[in-house]
Amino acid sequence: MTGSEESHAFRLAYVPGVTPAKWVRIWNERLPGIPLNLLAVPAAEASEVLRAGEADAGLVRLPVDRTFFSAIPLYTETTVVVVPKDHVITAADEVTVEDLADEVLFHPLDDVFDWDRPPGELAFERPATTEDAVELVAAGVGLLVVPQSLARLYHRKDLTYRPLVDAPESSVALAWPEEATTDLVEDFIGIVRGRTANSSRGRKAQTPEPKGKSGGRTGDVAGARRKPAAGKATGKTAGKSAARNPRAGSDVSKGAKRRKPRRRA
């Protein structure tokens, strides 16, 4: 990593519905000296923000231009239909596109789905944003199909949602300009892929402390002899003691010769 790269922050763009908090927390634990700056952007503008270099990487919705961007798919969301709480659809645990055939559905300009044709009857106009469309659903003039995260993001007490089982799905990915794959981008890739701080593929991997040549615990001296237990002597030790005190080994035998024989009755 260059000195200039160490000094600046990592800039991460993210689109509505995506919650980067978990990854940001891990980043702050592993790289406390490098701030991670979040940039909230509309889904339709995420690619242009990355192209313009206003962010280093982004949590975006697929598809993206793979001739320019590298992308790592992270997860695919459940698609739901947002309805008033007293709507007849709430009687079912899940619904199909066919169930919406007679319903008015809003198709906002920032819709994240690539529909061939949105289901149901088209509304009289297209709301500018998904948030505006949610307000219209609350007014009781139509329904809205969105990824589950957006239904949660714009939740209202008077609205609920049900899974739409056969509708298009929206996938979230980490994307960045392929030619701008910096060390900081690599660090964030490791985090979203679940690599540990000491992963062999990570730049932050640490080399474990070497063990002694004997293969023992760190700090043990290789080839060190163990001390004999108290009261025991090795052959060499016994020999040295005898050499220092020649009488030590002969007193016993002499004492045995001096014993008087027992008299027979």
Radius of gyration: 38 Å
Give the uncertain stretches in residue-range form.
1-7, 204-243, 246-257
- How large a portion of the residues is in β-strands, by DSSP E? 15-25%
| SSE run | HEHEHEEEEEHEHEEHHH
Shape: elongated
**Derived structural class:** alpha/beta
CA-CA gap between termini: 104 Å
* Mean pLDDT metric: 82
What level of helicity do the residues show? 10-25%
Number of strands: 10
Largest sheet: 5 strands, mixed
Number of helices: 8
**Major β-sheet strand ordering:** 2-1-3-10-4
Description:
By secondary structure, the protein is α/β, with parallel strands linked by helices. It has eight helices and ten strands. The strands form two sheets. It has a five-stranded mixed β-sheet with strand order 2-1-3-10-4. The termini are far apart.
Give the tags.
265 residues, five-stranded mixed sheet, 8 helices, 10 strands, 19% strand, disordered N terminus
List the helices and strands and how they pair.
Blueprint: H1 3-7, E1 10-14, H2 21-30, E2 36-40, H3 46-51, E3 57-61, E4 69-76, E5 79-84, E6 104-106, E7 121-122, H4 130-138, E8 143-147, H5 148-153, E9 159-163, E10 171-177, H6 183-192, H7 235-244, H8 251-257
Parallel strand pairs: 1-2, 1-3, 6-7, 6-8
Antiparallel strand pairs: 3-10, 4-10, 5-8, 5-9
The gist of it:
With 265 residues, this protein is an alpha/beta fold. The chain is built from 8 helices and 10 strands.
